From TrEMBL:
Gene for this chain: LOC108901953
InterPro entries: Chemokine_b/g/d, Chemokine_IL8-like_dom, Interleukin_8-like_sf
Signal peptide: 1-23
Protein localization: Secreted
Organism, as annotated: Lates calcarifer (Barramundi)
Protein name stated in the entry: Monocyte chemotactic protein 1B
Keyword Ribosomal protein: no
Gene3D superfamilies registered for this protein in UniProt: 2.40.50.40
Family: Belongs to the intercrine beta (chemokine CC) family.
Limits of the Chemokine interleukin-8-like domain: 29-87
Keywords: Cytokine, Secreted, Signal
Length: 99
């Protein structure tokens, strides 16, 4: 009589753990790109960038503009690589040169 109760308790516990961990995982990436901006954007108009999740079907870079918009771009495009390099090497605010 105790064995079936123990087995049922273990099954319920396992199902509860699976339910909690699946709920914590989330539904997927926040933003993926399916259309891309093919025309180059001046690097001075871009304030930052972020790569999309690896779970997205298309690798992409989200470029944030001074107007607050986000543009999808292909990370393999030469102009996108140039912007990313420019932003990576740009000093952060407050990091001026010390004389």
């Amino acid at each position: 009589m105790a064995a079936p109760r123990l087995a049922l308790s273990v099954v319920v516990l396992v199902l509860a753990v699976i339910t909690v961990t699946e709920g914590m995982r989330g539904t997927g990436p926040r933003k993926c790109c399916f259309r891309f901006n093919d025309s180059p954007v001046p690097k001075e108009r871009v304030t930052g960038y972020v790569r999309t999740s690896q779970r997205c079907s298309n690798p992409a870079v989200l470029l944030k503009t001074v107007a607050g918009r986000q543009l999808c771009a292909r990370p393999s495009d030469a102009w996108v690589k140039e912007i990313m390099t420019y932003l990576d090497n740009k000093p952060l605010p407050g990091q001026g040169t010390i004389a």
